[in-house]
Design brief:
Helix 16 packs across helix 17, helix 36 runs parallel beside helix 38 and helix 39 runs antiparallel to helix 40. The chain has 6 domains: 50 residues; 251 residues, Beta Polymerase, domain 2; 144 residues, Four Helix Bundle (Hemerythrin (Met), subunit A), CATH 1.20.120.330; 136 residues, no CATH class; 171 residues, Beta Polymerase, domain 2 (2-Layer Sandwich); 127 residues, Four Helix Bundle (Hemerythrin (Met), subunit A). The chain has 972 residues and is α/β, with parallel strands linked by helices. Strands 3, 4, 6, 7 and 8 form a 5-stranded mixed sheet that branches. Strands 9, 10, 11, 12 and 13 form a 5-stranded mixed sheet that branches.
């Protein structure tokens, strides 16, 4: 067989690399190991490409053909990496190791073999990025674990076994080393020639047992750690395994090589810095005692992820960004694809910024793998899909380029080559015909990444401009500008009550809370307040809005991260000023629940509340991240969900993008979504405790508990402060019982289920009350059962219910729980409403009920018109509608199909029960009056307005009442 490289094998090789390939081929032909030359000729095209792309591959083939024999003979070069195969291979090789020297040699031979396979597959484009990173990470894991296992056993023979208290059980037991992998190793994204960042730790203090002289556990693990590092890192005749970097451990290079769990927890709680939170995001137990390591990660979790949206991370991330930019300029790193502008670190920064800020609230962001988190950012609507697509494509491209640079010579580098041969190699590996084509694609990716990176936190130029604008208001805030000068300044900038504004600022500045702030909190306040004052100057009534806004400022003084949110996001500050100016009610909501400030970050979603299906999906996604047995966190999340979405509705109404009917629809959908989850939550809680209700034969029954909404809820007319009028029913056999060891009667089960639903809705938590619940409309009112069977409900409505209860039934509907029970309720409602009634007797009862309401609830001041209760108001319209439905449903059952007044009036007109023109006019008046109530609620005002309002409308309603009810309403 000839030794010359055939010409066709060179055709796919760039001219600049052909001599390199020829020289390499000749050296391969000199290998005397049997079978190799045949193998080279069989895959001559691949071999020529390998020689063109990598000195490392060439060198390994020449120097170590004996070590690479298993790769050749088993054909694994053509097979994709399968998770676990490298671990299995080490398990097969390691039993024969008897000395530390043999361990060192075995690790290096093992690394060489699998490294060759990984580089071969990556550079020849037989593997994608995910395979390469996964294989390299598993190789590192296996080598670390192999070194730890053998050296720990050997250390125990020499120094005794370290003993201590188990952190969980408290029992005295043997202690083992725990190795944390950081960075790309922790994320299972290791590159081809990377350092491995490690932290050594152990469960608890104590001493060794079983040797002639005991030593302290920390001394034991420090010595063990030194031996592990030497086994992996030290260059020997067979090379090295992995370069080990221990600088991420507590106290850095000056700290102990290993620390106990208690010492680790104490360090991070008391001295941990923001960049260490950033680093620990990717931390993973890679070797040693995995169970104990899992306990350690639980201990460190609160340090890494705050349970709230952690806006304080903005400031530290901004500082880190500035350091990155300075380092790039100082070290001229523009050709570095990791550290330079638009490089890998900027993508990592973007992703980990969201993880730090929101990972505590959204556990799905706590994944270590960057590309997984990128996808989650789209699902959570934290980044547009187009931005994530840019970042993901750039990340894969840059990581592939990194592998190309490192695979050439097994060298840790991220710097683009400047020599023609190096550039030809990189272009060839990356699949480009020449360097220029590759360089243009790289530049495009980096430009997109750098643009998105700059958008995360204000650039230096933006920051300087912001500081300059704030400085102009600085003297006003700190009080160095006083008297007429301060009043003139505020007045010239639009403040309508400058003296009042200065008084408010002084009260805040001199208050106890501000005077006792720590230095960092005061610095944030002093930076924020000038920006707020300037932002207010562009509004119509700055003094008024300042008064409203300061309640929020005071509520977050001890949680100044919220001030950072507004400082770092001018758009959010603009929305805050706009909303506080438009509605004191919204200002109150933000002050009571500052977490809602998060909603101001995305103006598009703030003014586009989601529909009912999206609400359900959104809540389900949030609840999936919370354990079902964590009722406290479930309740907190429900309250934040409700408040956040109600805020969106209010903001949209104020902007004019939602008409009244839609506002009520959205508020009702929010309540239905919340209530539906509350029922599921309560059901799961009760069935875990008592088992599932059964029928009379002991068979499980499907959940048949239903919630019926009355009043505004049933009528799809909820307002911002409405309570929920609810009735609970079920359709199971009350004499049967639940299955389970703590079996109870079905009747007791459903009573407790209803109590649990009310508890979840009514309870005051740190985030307030979910909804106030009114159960007085249930059969027999407060004296009746909390939960009735549908049979009992029907019997009560047929025999014992008062006329006013049938009036209430007009606006009742199923809102949550079992749809089947809801359908049966709808049938009962229709049958009751369609009963034949004496119109005259009915008319007298309705008039009498309305008269009593006016006597107790109508205003007595002739200068005031109560929109709901006074003659000619909303209640008169509702009573007329209810009377007509009860009087005529027997003849026109279709008028019972709807539960809301608007569509009921339409159906009455369509059926001819009411003159269609009357119905339309009454509908218009009803909407106008309800709109006024909505607007006044947002202004924190009640339903009493000037008596001169709605004169024509009230007169029209009185005429309708006289015509329909046969009674003259008092015009006062």
């Amino acid at each position: 067989m000839g030794s010359d490289l055939p010409g066709q094998a060179l055709q796919a090789i760039p001219d600049a690399l052909q001599e390199t390939v020829k020289t390499g081929w000749n050296s391969l032909m000199a290998i005397e190991e049997p079978g190799w030359q045949d193998w080279f000729h069989e895959r001559i095209g691949q071999v020529a490409q390998a020689l063109a792309r990598s000195d490392f591959l060439h060198e390994q083939l020449v120097r170590h053909p004996d070590i690479l024999l298993p790769l050749r003979d088993n054909g694994v070069l053509d097979q994709p990496w399968c998770p676990g195969e490298i671990r299995e291979a080490w398990a097969h090789d390691s039993p024969s190791i008897e000395t530390e020297e043999q361990l060192n040699a075995a690790l290096r031979h093992f690394r060489r073999r699998w490294m060759f396979r990984t580089v071969w597959r990556d550079l020849l484009k037989l593997a994608d990025f995910e395979e390469t990173a996964g294989a390299m990470s598993e190789l590192a894991d296996v080598c670390i674990q192999g070194a730890v296992d053998w050296l720990y056993a050997d250390a125990c023979r020499e120094w005794g076994t370290p003993m201590g208290h188990d952190p969980v059980t408290g029992e005295w037991s043997a202690q083992q080393l725990v190795v944390l992998g950081m960075g790309k190793l922790g994320a299972c994204e290791l590159n081809l020639s990377s350092d491995i960042d490690l932290i050594f730790t152990f469960p608890s203090g104590g001493e060794t047992e079983g040797s002639r002289r005991s030593i302290d556990n920390q001394v034991f693990f420090n010595r063990l750690g030194q031996r592990v590092i030497r086994a992996l890192d030290q260059p020997m005749a067979d090379g090295f395994v992995f370069r080990v970097d221990m600088r991420l451990r507590p106290y850095g290079q000056s700290g102990s090589l290993s620390l106990s769990f208690d010492a680790m927890e104490t360090y991070y709680q008391n001295q941990g810095r923001e960049w260490e939170r950033y680093a620990l995001i990717k931390a993973r137990v890679v070797a040693g005692d995995f169970n104990a390591g899992g306990q350690l990660m639980e201990l460190l979790h609160p340090f890494i992820y705050r349970r709230y949206v952690d806006f304080s991370a903005f400031e530290s991330l901004r500082d880190m960004k500035r350091l990155i930019q300075r380092e790039v300029r100082r070290r001229s790193l523009e050709n570095n694809i990791k550290l330079g502008a638009g490089g890998i670190r900027e993508i990592e920064f973007i992703v980990q910024a969201f993880q730090l800020i929101r990972g505590g609230r959204d556990p799905v962001l706590q994944d270590r793998m960057l590309r997984t988190v990128l996808g989650t950012l789209v699902e959570l609507e934290l980044l547009p899909e187009s931005v994530v697509e840019d970042l993901d494509a750039a990340y894969v491209f840059l990581r592939d380029t990194e592998h190309a640079l490192q695979g050439i010579a097994d060298k840790q580098t991220q710097t683009l080559p400047e020599d023609p041969e190096g550039r030809s190699r990189v272009a060839l590996i990356m699949g480009y015909s020449d360097w220029a084509s590759f360089e243009q694609e790289l530049a495009d990716h980096r430009a997109r990444v750098n643009g998105h990176f700059a958008d995360i936190i204000a650039s230096d130029e933006e920051e300087e401009a912001s500081d300059s604008a704030a400085d102009s208001w600085h003297d006003v805030w700190i009080g160095t500008l006083t008297g007429n000068a301060a009043r003139d300044w505020l007045s010239s900038n639009g403040y309508e009550e400058p003296e009042r504004s200065l008084e408010l600022l002084a009260e805040l500045r001199q208050g106890r809370t501000v005077s006792t702030l720590q230095r960092e909190g005061r610095r944030r306040l002093d930076r924020f307040m000038p920006m707020l004052l300037e932002a207010l100057s562009g509004e119509d009534a700055p003094s008024l809005i300042l008064d409203r806004s300061l309640a929020l400022v005071e509520s977050v003084l001890r949680r100044s991260a919220y001030l950072l949110l507004l400082t770092e996001n001018p758009g959010a500050l603009r929305e805050l000023v706009r909303l506080c100016g438009a509605s004191p009610w919204i200002a109150d909501q933000l002050a009571e629940t500052p977490l809602l400030l998060d909603e101001l970050l995305n103006a598009e979603s703030l003014y586009s509340p989601p529909g009912k299906e999206q609400l359900h999906d959104d809540l389900n996604q949030q609840m999936l991240r919370i354990p079902l047995d964590d009722l406290e966190q479930q309740m907190e999340t429900l309250r934040h969900f409700k408040k956040a979405h109600v805020l969106r509705v209010a903001a949209s109404e104020l902007r004019g993008t939602l008409p009244l009917m839609k506002v009520s629809d959205y508020l009702t959908w929010i309540a239905e979504t919340v209530l539906d989850h509350v029922v599921v939550l309560a059901w799961q809680n009760l069935t875990q405790r008592y088992g599932t209700p059964t029928d009379g034969q002991g068979q499980h029954v499907e959940p048949d508990f239903a919630v019926i909404g009355y009043g505004k809820f049933g009528g799809i007319e909820l307002g911002y402060t409405s309570d929920l009028d609810l009735v609970f029913v079920h359709d199971s056999d009350p004499q049967a019982s639940t299955e389970g060891t703590r079996s109870i009667d079905n009747a007791v089960f459903y009573a407790r289920l209803g109590q649990r639903v009310v508890h979840i809705l009514n309870t005051q938590t740190p985030s307030g009350q979910l909804y106030e619940v009114d159960m007085r409309l249930r059969p027999s009112g407060n004296a009746g059962l909390l939960v009735s069977t549908l049979d009992a409900f029907q019997l009560y409505q047929e025999r014992d219910a008062w006329t006013w209860e049938h009036q209430a039934l007009v606006r009742a509907r199923w809102v949550a729980g079992s749809p089947d029970s809801g359908k049966r309720f709808a049938g009962i409602r229709r049958d009751i409403l369609c009963r034949s009634r004496d119109p005259e007797s009915l008319r007298r009862e309705v008039i009498d009920m309305r008269r009593r309401m006016r006597e107790n609830l109508a205003s007595t001041d002739p200068a005031i018109f109560h929109i709901k209760q006074d003659p000619g108001g909303i209640i008169d319209i509702e009573f007329m509608v209810q009377y007509l439905i009860l009087a005529w449903a027997h003849d026109y059952p279709q008028i019972t199909e709807q539960s809301d007044n608007i569509r009921q009036m339409e159906s009455l007109g369509e059926a001819g029960v009411m003159d269609p023109e009357w119905a339309e006019r009454m509908r218009e008046i009803y909407i106008a009056m309800r709109s006024t109530i909505h607007r006044r609620a947002l202004q924190r005002q009640n339903s009493e307005i000037d008596a001169s309002a709605f004169p024509e409308e009230r007169a029209y309603i009185r005429r309708c009442w006289e015509a329909i009810m046969g009674e003259t309403l008092d015009a006062t």
